[in-house]
Amino acid sequence: MSKNDNQRKILIVDDEKDMREILGDRFSAEGFPVLLAGDGKEGLTLAFENHPSAILLDIAMPNMDGLQMLEKLRNDNWGKDASVVLLTNISDTNKIEEARKIGIQAYMLKAEWKMEQIVDQVKKIIHN
Fold first, then answer.
1. Cα 56 vs. chain centroid, distance in angstroms?
2. Which residue has the higher pLDDT, 94 or 1?
3. Which end of the chain is more exposed for a tag (fewer CB within 10 A), N or C?
4. Contact indicator for 88, 74 with CB cutoff of 8 Å
């Protein structure tokens, strides 16, 4: 691993264990260090401790949902500029619009995207 790989951490925040593991395995196979969180509270802690290059964030989660995590993230000095991809099964236009106003780099509906497209989207964000 090169020195820059440490700056390319991916944080996956999703309460669905299978989804977290599938995404984690795929990004690990692509050479990214991966952090996994099962809810927004854990995700926020990991984000602040590790400053990942990109955060894949679900909306509907226990303890702290994705929008609450996003708001708290944006209120932080580091977090205000963190790259966040909303990756969710929720297609509620009000929630998506709220997330866009708070600040996300992309919104992806899980059912409509293939794994390769998710990886490509994250790579694009990281390399910009």
1. 2
2. 94
3. C
4. no
Residue 127 buriedness (CB in 10 A; 0-12 / 13-18 / 19+)? exposed
In angstroms, what CA-CA distances link 35 with 28, 53, 76? 10, 11, 20
Closest CA to 58 of 112, 19, 97, 25: 19
Q: Would you state the pLDDT for residue 7? A: 60
What digits encode the pLDDT tens for the residues 72-96?
999 999 999 999 999 988 888 898 8
Please state the domain count of the chain.
1
The answer to whether 83 and 54 have CB atoms below 8 angstroms apart is yes
| Through-space distance between the first and last CA atoms of the chain, rounded to whole angstroms | 20
CA nearest neighbour of 89 among 69, 70, 61: 61
What CATH number is given to the structural domain containing 37? 3.40.50.2300
